[in-house]
Amino acid sequence: MSEYVIDTPPLVALPIAGMDALFPVRRVYCIGRNYAAHAIEMGHNPDREPPFFFQKNPNNLDPSGEFPYPPHTSDVHHEAEVAVMLKSGGTNIPIDEAESHIYGYALSLDMTRRDLQGEQKKMGRPWEIGKAFERSAPVGPIHRIEETGPLNEGALRLTVNGETRQEGDLNQMIWKVAEMISYLSEYFELAPGDVILSGTPSGVAAVERGDVMEISVEGLGSMSVKVF
């Protein structure tokens, strides 16, 4: 006899480059406006201020290479990011120990229903309707930190149908990965399986059905995602 009154939801797990084993996902934290140029294009101050985070759901992460255009929107934007996967966690993690908790990195997109997000901002409401919809975070295979080393710099680029939309470098992040881990651990108890999306450079823009997005980051290769 089952101990649960309904069927248990499937565990979200992501592929790892060169391995058959999968990475189980616990939580997904996303930092907002972590590149100065992106903060400016969104109409905000680019100065270093305390970071802020929102969350996506584990099952928003999608390694399929396809992105279904979501309902109730006419303005879906791409945001090219790097996902950071944690192998361990805790609270009040010192910055100089933060990188020891990283399992690896992956290419990712924070797809955003910008029109719906904008409406929520005007009303002072949470962003989830614009950020945490189904399959809103396309993600590539995870590359272990033992193979990549800590990724604190490296060119990031996103094209749509071959046209460059976003370009930047990981060293342009206002809050570096170690700082994000340390800061989050002051407010949450981080744990194995947690994922952090590290923000996007400028150049975010709308996509349409039929578009092909390609994101590349030095050290992580490239990933192609088709909008349908």
Automatic annotation (TrEMBL):
Residues 28-227 form the Fumarylacetoacetase-like C-terminal domain. One of its GO terms (molecular function) is metal ion binding. Keywords: Metal-binding. InterPro entries: Fumarylacetoacetase-like_C (IPR011234), Fumarylacetoacetase_C_sf (IPR036663). This is Fumarylacetoacetase-like C-terminal domain-containing protein.
